[in-house]
Amino acid sequence: MKLSNFIRKFVKNETGVTAIEYAILAAASSAVILVIFAPDGVVSHMFVNVFNSLSDRLVNVING
């Protein structure tokens, strides 16, 4: 009887599962952030393109 109660409580206990799910979500989020903000990432290319465009426009305005 005690073993069946233990197994039943063990199966119903979800606290460990929740912690593992949060760990998986945190790892996935970290991986996505690293890919996006990496030196060769999407955001890096966007900033380079924006600042190059601004630089070209300023040079054109200054040189007339």
Protein model, in words:
The protein is mainly alpha-helical and 64 residues long. The protein has one domain. It has helices at residues 2-12, 15-37, 42-63. The chain starts with a helix and ends with a helix. The relative contact order is 0.06.
Concise structural overview:
The chain is mostly helical and 64 residues long. Helix content is 88%, strand content 0%. It has helices at residues 2-12, 15-37, 42-63.
Layout of strands and helices, then pairs:
Blueprint: H1 2-12, H2 15-37, H3 42-63
Residue windows where pLDDT falls under 50 for at least 5 positions: none
Radius of gyration: 26 Å
Percent range for β-strand residues: under 5%
The topology string of helices and strands comes to: HHH
Mean pLDDT: 85
E-strand count: 0
How is the quaternary structure best described? single chain
Query: How does the helix and strand content classify structurally?
Result: mainly alpha
Largest sheet: none
- How many angstroms separate the termini? 90 Å
**Shape type:** rod-shaped
How helical, in percent, are the residues?
over 70%
**Number of DSSP helices?**
3
What number of domains?
1
What features would you highlight for this structure?
about 60 residues; mainly alpha; 3 helices; rod-shaped
